[in-house]
Specification:
150 residues, alpha/beta, five-stranded mixed β-sheet, 8 strands, binds zinc ion
Length: 150
């Protein structure tokens, strides 16, 4: 009986296109130093969650580069500060920074980058944020991560 329920549940998961869509999202960044979303819902039931960042502008990565960095609200300022010191060669992320949960590389206009992380590493009750670590961008280019049951 239990096996039958599991099989049905598995079939339902594969049958639903929404299920897959819920475990991935796309974020756009532009030459006006903006992300197109200010919140990303991350379902806790996803085994992994993929964020694809698309730079819809034209400016090169050393002028108007963008990345997508996931950390806690409490660590955002520190990650940003150390990232700026690390420079473009390190994608403005301090090498080995354990405060960084996930990040893409810095991309320029027309480019795309993605990163996958496990929602299971996110704890309920902790505030998580994402931001762009290119120097001077984090104050404007940032948003919230909302953990959802689903
Ligand atoms: Zn940026």
């Amino acid at each position: 009986m239990l096996l039958r329920v599991l099989v049905l549940a598995t079939l339902a998961l594969f049958a639903s296109p929404l299920w897959a869509a819920n475990c991935a999202t796309a974020v756009e960044a532009n030459d006006a130093m903006q992300f197109n979303v200010s919140n990303i819902n991350v379902p806790q039931s996803c085994k992994s969650f993929t964020v694809t960042l698309k730079h819809t502008g034209k400016l090169p990565r050393n002028v108007m580069g963008h990345d997508w960095v996931l950390t806690t609200a409490a660590n955002k300022a520190g990650v940003d500060e150390d990232g700026i010191k690390a420079g473009l060669d390190n994608n403005y992320i301090k090498p080995g920074d354990t405060r960084v949960i996930a990040h893409t590389k810095i991309i320029g206009g027309g480019e795309t980058a993605s990163v996958t992380f496990k929602p299971s590493v996110l704890k309920a009750g902790t505030d998580y944020v994402y931001f762009c670590s290119f120097p001077g961008h984090s104050a404007v280019m940032n948003g919230k991560i909302t953990l959802t049951k689903g």
